[in-house]
Amino acid sequence: LAPWIPVVGLEIHAQISSNSKLFSGSQVQFAAPPNSLVSFFDASLPGTLPVLNRRCVEAAVMTGLALNCSINKKSLFDRKHYFYADLPAGYQITQQRVPIAVNGSLSYSLCIDNKMSQMVTKTVRIKQIQLEQDSGKSLHDDTRSQTLVDLNRAGVGLMEVVMEPDMCCGEEAAAAVRELQLILQTLGSSQAVMAEGQLRVDANVSVHHLGEPYGVRTEVKNINSIRFLAKAIDYEIQRQIEELENGGTILNETRAFDSKLGCTVPMRDKEGKQDYRFMPEPNLPPLILYDAKSLPANVNHQQVINIDWIHERLPDLPSVKREKLVEQYGILPEHSFTLLNEDGLAEFFESVVKQTQMKPKKVIGWILKDLLSYLKQHSLTVKESPVSSFLLADLLNLLEKKEISSTAAKQVFAELWKGEGKTPLEIVKEQKLELLQDQKELEQICQAVIDGQENEVIMMVPG
Amino acid sequence: AALKEGLRSQVSAALKEGRVTPTELCQRCLALIKSTKFLNAYITVAEETALKQAEESEERYKRGQPLGVLDGVPIAVKDNFNTAGIETTCASNMLRGYVSPYNATVVQKLLNQGAVLLGKTNLDEFAMGSGSTDGVFGPVRNPWSYSRQYKEKSVPKSHSEDKESNWVITGGSSGGSAAAVSSFTCFAALGSDTGGSTRNPAAHCGVVGLKPTYGLISRHGLIPLVNSMDVPGILTRCVDDAAVVLGSLAGHDPKDSTTIQDDFKPFELPNLTDVSKLSVGIPKEYHAPGLSSEILALWSKAADLFKNAGAKVVEVSLPHTRYSIVCYHVLCTAEVASNMARFDGLEYGHRSDMNESTESMYAATRREGFNDVVRGRILSGNYFLLKQNYEKYFIKAQKVRRLIANDFVKVFRSGVDILLTPTTLSDAAPYLEFIQEDNRTRSTQDDILTQAANMAGLPAINVPTALSERGLPVGLQFIGRSFQEKQLLTVAKWFEKQVQFPMIQLEEVTRHDNGVFQYQKSASFS
User: Fold this and answer.
1) Is residue A86 predicted with pLDDT exceeding 70?
2) Chain A neighbours among B 218-237 (CB < 8 Å)?
3) Do A47 and B254 make contact, defined as CB atoms within 8 angstroms?
4) Which residues of B participate in catalysis according to the annotation?
5) Are A147 and B358 inside 8 Å of each other by CB?
6) pLDDT tens-digit profile of A249-262?
7) Residue numbers in B near A94 (CB within 8 A)
8) Is B342 close to A90, i.e. CB distance below 8 A?
9) Mind listing the pLDDT tens digit for each residue in A304-343?
């Protein structure tokens, strides 16, 4: 049987981190009382007009630059029409013709064979980034046959990031999304927390044989975590392969991921293909951005955005941060990945390194094995760690000065974890874990042991 | 005071000097509205709030601190502008009973100047139409139907014929506003102009109708028909008044991203005496099929007027004029389909009792809420926006629009300062005759002389010129350069002075006249 080549592309919606919405002044806030953050424009009251939020544009430019995109100095807004209860105007304002950024790339890393010892770097092309409005939320109450509509989210700014079908499996997609998430969080352009709906991912999946054209693709939605993303994609790939090998065909349809069953199911509310009747948004002139060269002389800086100015102020992206960590501390690349993967862990590590004489190469073991596994076991974030960097540094200093053994150190660490406020030294004293430095004392103890085990000793000596 | 030409005479002076109070003025207007109710010019009369505003204005005058020329001046607003606390219906069942929580920017600006808002005027439903006959509150009657001038000229076909049935339309879609100004129930009114909706009824009702340059006046709060062509329109009894209202409305609005950023400085119109440096263009394509010989003659006479006064009068060509109607229909219906999508009964407005499903509720709501004209345009517009049709129709129409706009650019670049054209094909038709043809047919016919200016975003103004043989008003149109309202209005004012358009002789007005309306008869408050 000829091998199947799976092809995976992603459409990611990242909610822009801003005080107010994309086209109106109402606030952006998670979990506010229903319909408490709705301006006249958000409610689509007749006669209201969109006014573009500068911060949202800056967020999109930052993200485009971080993803190596070309920023379009002129981009346009369009209306995408469809009727739905959570879309008050009957259309969404988006960028269909000319989006704000195009042709970028994202590099991400995977470990081969789950060993964390061999990392490989891959790249996925970014087709475009576009600005668009988020919709409201609708909740269907089947018992009362009614739909409840909350427009708090309606009009919140989104960046849609389209990743080309350069990925081949769930693992790659998950890694790419994770990296994107880290980038967005570093930039501050989106908080990108999937659980709060700030990052939503739809996957486009198809399979084909080598040399043949791409197969029919399905769109998989309703994926609520990165872990489920990988699962959903892998399931769908498998499903398509099985279907085709059994002589079936793949429908160009939208499927939802059922996390409980671990499978994808057809979504029934899409009837046929929608014609969105795209039309230019007449109330918004083209969005013009400038760079240092094209910036007009007498201009009100409140009114223009300078791409170069934003570029100069970009923070270190995760990939750069990792490189710096490896270079500065001599840790392995895969270590740097784990450090950045956990919110606050890199900072914790650096803080410990500053406060201890122990070499970073040795500190890293404590951070990644001991601290991290304890955090995971107790489902705690680095911020919530009962062991502060100060305490850990203290402990590592004792170890470094050979005042305790590494076994003892682990015991102390376990005790520190209880968070009873004792210092490492106090615990060592309490549990009598001090290393004996006195040679004579050591000999006495050893002799006593041997003396008590005469038979075993006799057996050992001839051999 | 006589030395200060064009300045504060009549109403404004009278208010300042205490010869009349804002309350009296308001009361007279309200009384006249009542006695001219048969015109059906108003949908909502905001009597209480108007009197309150008048009272507040009076206080300011007593303190010697009026807000400006418009302080205490009664005005009316077309019912497609949002007015906080006062119903805004767009003459549609969809918005019957809808009370907006905010004021349109232009309304707010007028109120900030102390103007007294008498009420909301009648229109074609959602401003779609050229007769003001297709709203749910019924048609508006042209006040000139009841003028002595018209009655004298009209020959009843039989003695038994009810002269009531002979009334003529106002034109549209801002017919209510035009009728309100024409019948002296207010001093100025806001209309809207998308394809001629301010200039057309202005011509038929014998008042000044100004369509400003697109982007000069904020559309925030104007319920849109075609976002890329709509402008708020100004209706007054004389050109000077239009300039005053323009002065209080124009300028950048941060709430409307299509308004220009440049500073706008209100201006007073000079009294032009020398037109020798003026170049007037006569676009030959405006000699449109169906243009009445009467209006053709008037147009010619007007051209001669300029020529004889020393202006340079040249024939020019706007070759793409004949494509403008079709182009307008594609673009207009496409935007309408889009703009009307929000009327689904969920957040505001009419909601059908049908509740089997969201879709069925939408469908029933929109069928019940919209009239045939609106529904027809929505269907057409959606057709043109379909993926398979978009290139053929919408994109093509945009290209043609560019050509039409370029026609004007070329002509203005060739040294012409202003264009002179007819505003309408004929004088106002009797209602019974008008409704023989459907809305679309009528719009197609009636918009031809006005809507190219909307396509190109140019300022244009109707100036009442003369009475027709039937004793009804006929106006002529001036089209100017982008953002050159001052020049446009200056020339219009000169023309207005030359033609001396007669005042309407309405019985109702005479009845209410006890000295107060001398200000109105003089037709000027600035």
Assistant:
1) yes
2) 219-224, 226-228
3) no
4) 78, 173, 197
5) yes
6) 999 999 999 989 99
7) none
8) yes
9) 999 999 999 999 999 999 999 999 999 998 899 999 999 8
Mean pLDDT over residues A262-282, rounded? 84
Residues of chain B with pLDDT under 70: 1-9, 156-164, 510-526
Cα atoms in the 13 Å half-sphere on the side-chain side of B438: 7
Nearest CB among B104, B254, B346 relative to A47 is that of B104
ipTM of the complex: 0.93
Contact B386/A277, CB-based, under 8 Å? yes
Rounded to the nearest angstrom, the minimum Cα separation between B220 and chain A is 6
Interface probe with B: pick from A20, A22, A48, most Cβ of B within 10 Å: A48
List, for residues A237-246, the tens digit of each pLDDT value.
999 999 999 9
Average pLDDT over residues A194-208: 95
- DSSP letters, B168-202, are BB--SSSHHHHHHHHTTS-SEEEEEESSSTTHHHH
pLDDT for residue A107 is more than 80 = yes
Pairs across A and B, CB distance < 8 A: 99
Amino acid at A11: E
pTM attached to this predicted model: 0.92
Mutate which: B227, B392, B398, vs A, most A CBs within 10 A: B227
